[in-house]
Amino acid sequence: MKKKFLAALLVLLFVFSLAGCAGTSESPQDQATTGTDAIDPAGEITFNAGTYTAEAPGMNGPIKVEVTVSDSSIETIAVLTSSETAGLGDVAMDSLTNDIIHHQSIGIDAITGATLTSTGFLTAVEQALVEAGGDLEALKTAVARENEGQIVELEADVVVIGTGGAGTSAAVTAAENGAKVIVLEKAAVAGGTTAMGGGFFAADSAQARALGHEPVDTDYIFEKWMDEMDWLADATLVKQFLELSHTTADWMEARGIEFQKTKAAVQQSHAEGTNGYHKYNDHTKTSAQLTAMLDKIAADHGATIYYETPAIQLMTDSRQVTGVIASAKDGSTLHISAKSVVIATGGFVGNADMVTEALKGVQVNASGYNSNVGDGIQMAVEAGAATRGLSAMVTHTFAVAGGDAVEGDYEFMERYQATNSVAYMPIIPWINASGVRFANEDIVYDRALSGNAVMSQGNYAYFLYNETLLNLLETQGARAAGMLDKIAMGPMPEITPMDFGWNKLTEMVDQMVAAGQVVKADTLEALAEQLNMNPRQLAETMKKYNEDAAKGVDTLYGKDGSHMYAMTSGPYYAFKVSVNNLGTVGGIRINSNFEVVMDEPEKGYSTTVTNLYAAGSDAAGLYSDHYAHTIEGAAQGWAYNSGRLAGARAAENALNITINLFEQ
């Protein structure tokens, strides 16, 4: 069975929790699950009573459903097989099941944040109902929403748009400091990109101290960070982020986020003295924990949380923001007057055109939370805001062409090694489309650096193997080929087995070759011709590489000599490798108070869009034109810290008070 394992891994698991307004929660089990209260939109739908099965492709593989109908209604829907993301896809299908049975219609909207799963599920149900003799046109009649066309007027001190780490932290901070808060989330669940991450940076925590760790020297980190950014980052923001990170981990833990301080850096490349990585105990629960934080401010401070309610426009008067217009799930339009608005919609990783434009034409794979399409950034720009650092992306992992071509009953890690781990080997040469080696491949131990290196060559690069090396990996493991240290990936402690064979590796690679995705040739010249590369250039590149490998010295880029594995004979294999974009980290220009500023460089960006703030991936300035590799967990750490700071500044503005988070 063909399975989209790369997509399954990169779209890390969410915990899906449906919640209503005012912080009250309603699970799918609480909704109608039988046809008793069903609404028949067409009035005359009939079926051939019985049970029917159908299958359609979902996000990670086929979704097979079983649908039972009477002669006049849809009775039950059961998912028989699915490899959809636990905690997201499965609960999305539960929610859709309830809606279909309640409305007796498949003319319902997909669940935002689980669009591919929703589409696959609805297609499978549609096929089953057609087989049951249902009238497809009648079944697909759009379900009218309860309050379609109504305008609802609301008021708040602070409106927060988005419920990832940044938005949730902003909302909690504002509410706990006395603000009346309304939170808008276009998805059906809190979490966003934050729920896809493995952990975050914090300079200090009770857990770190329990391990005997001294606080990370954030002055040292600041110097390294600004050096890496060539001082094109906003020092005032970097400094605040690092200083507040001394307290944010404990703040999060006190509010239910569960994590553990790591004893050492996960990625070996990170320098001594920079380890502030706090790893989630179970990243599949982050979404539920963020939801719980929002539920608590609803219960304790009267906050109102709207899910499946996207903000569509900022309300403005001259150069000041006066509120937000949003489209509610029930069909009504919310006009929310507010004293402060915080944009925290997660960037624009899911907007391929916007990403490609920011990268000057280079295309990368959108592997983050693809519902983040830049709507918050666009709303700010429409209000006159400046942008900054749009090319900064978390290009953090690789995709190997041909992985989807592998079919067969393989264990997960067997398949992963053949279709992904082959891209994380420092012992192979990386070749660009011209046939030139372009990097010290040891940077593969740092996902940010290696992603940047490949992206610098265009849309892809080729990673070269020969048959001898593949066989060696299959029979003995990576250490036998000279690799000195394993590579970890998220929750997987070793994706490049060092001391045991990569079972069935060549068998799966042969499938990728047969599919035309991995290129195989007996000679380098023949390989170059298949790759539309200058044969002489590739031959010269590999001649130099093999000469250095024989001496154990990389005279070109200084790679560890043990990793210079010679490839002097064929057959040769070229794996086409592209870069996965886990998120964007450039966006709206803000000042040191997290206020959005007008697009007026001639005024030194001193004029603010009054009452408007930004945080997380929407707020630019932490980076120059690329993601930092100075510390692990920077993006997630920024989400929580910037959210706290933006929430505090927004509450100060709304309530005319002073909040000093650095002294709390």
UniProtKB/TrEMBL annotation:
Keywords: FAD, Flavoprotein, Oxidoreductase, Signal. SMART domains: FMN_bind (SM00900). Its cofactor is FAD; FMN. It catalyses: dihydrourocanate + A = urocanate + AH2. Its EC number is 1.3.99.33. The keyword Oxidoreductase applies. PROSITE patterns: PROKAR_LIPOPROTEIN (PS51257). Pfam families: FAD_binding_2, FMN_bind. The keyword ATP-binding does not apply. Residues 1-22 form the signal peptide. Residues 58-132 form the FMN-binding domain. It comes from the Bacteria. Belongs to the FAD-dependent oxidoreductase 2 family. FRD/SDH subfamily. PANTHER family: FAD-DEPENDENT OXIDOREDUCTASE 2 FAD BINDING DOMAIN-CONTAINING PROTEIN (PTHR43400:SF7), FUMARATE REDUCTASE (PTHR43400). This is Urocanate reductase.
